[in-house]
Amino acid sequence: MEYLYKAMTRQGAILEGKDSAESPDILVGRLKARGLTVLQIDAFSSQDEVITSSVRAFPLVELCRFTRDLSVLMRSGLPIERALKLLSETVSNAAMGAFITDVRQQVKQGKPLSQALAPYEKSLGRFYLSLIKAGEASGRMVEVLSTLADYLEQLRLLRSNVISAMIYPAILLAFAIISIWVMLGFVVPQFDTLFSDMGDALPLPTRVLMFVGDFFSHYALHMLVGSVLLAVFVWKGLKTDKGQTSLQAFLMRLPLVGSLLITLEVARFTRTLGTLLAKGVPMVKALEIALDTLSLVTMKQAFAQLIPAVKSGRVMSDTLKDFKRFVTPTLIQMIRVGEETGRLDAILLDLSALYEAEVAVKIKRLLTLLEPALILTLGVAIAFMVVAILLGILSVNDFIF
């Protein structure tokens, strides 16, 4: 039977995981033998998958560093247990340190690395564990660890490029919101007394601005609270399957954004599948794992048809013809060449590099349009306020004289 456990290491770090045992007492004894103090044990069932999500994924940069360092130490001739001991003593992240210590204890008891890592599948992912098992089966663990580190590094760089590219537009958007907030909340109300007696004599732009400013000054707190509540409601809604699907459908309809999302997904899918095939993972299992890396629901549902097609003896390139919304004719042709020459893994890795480069180009193109649009919107909004105020002042002069 499987159990979820929470335990504390000698260093005081809290460790959570999943393991199988004949009874809770046997699992307690096993955890104590690994130097852990058991805090909680609960029976695990298929309905408890949500609970295991509390065992959060390790930071990608930490996991990449751990994998790379383990590969280097083992390549230098150190046994895996000694390499893990050295890493546990030098790692700075407490959660990663507790993880390495626990894995080392299990390896020290004679378990293979894949079995020692199995309780952390939620944190590491099926891809990671499958490659480790492939490395053990082929006797090429050092090479597999190096490949894993390269894969994680590429994934980290791809994610970092996307996040970095969005920082400047986010700053511009925040600056625009704050600027308009200050103008409506503090600057416009200063002219209320000056314009209050003129009524319909004011120009239309000035009347519109004063109405918006008056509404804003009276209901600013309500708007702030409402915005926060709306943001929380939307955030929670996006965590549901229906919310995710709706958001993705909206984003896919946006010019440039939809194409960028598909390119990102194809880059990730081809790199994952190519890496798995290169290390000897069977095609069907490799497809199942690669599908787990996809985020777009419609694309995942479409690509899921690859599995029964491959099982029935159909080649992947023939099945991909049905999904021209997500793949280009060039990609299909290159995959067909890989299938015919027996170099599908290498072709997929080459394709992933091409698509990752295309992601960078599309991000740059999107920002080239987005940044001027934000600046123009802010400029127009502030210009309207300034012109409306100036027209109002000129109207006051005309009214007096």
Automatic annotation (TrEMBL):
The keyword NADP does not apply. The keyword Transmembrane applies. The chain crosses the membrane at residues 165-188, 219-238, 373-396. Residues 66-189, 269-391 form the Type II secretion system protein GspF domain. It is a multi-pass membrane protein. Coiled coil: none annotated. GO terms for cellular component: plasma membrane. Keywords: Cell inner membrane, Cell membrane, Membrane, Transmembrane, Transmembrane helix. Its main location: membrane. Pfam families: T2SSF. Signal peptide: none annotated. It is found in: Cell inner membrane. PANTHER family: GENERAL SECRETION PATHWAY PROTEIN (PTHR30012), TYPE II SECRETION SYSTEM PROTEIN F-RELATED (PTHR30012:SF0). Belongs to the GSP F family. This is Type II secretion system protein GspF domain-containing protein. It comes from Nitrincola nitratireducens.
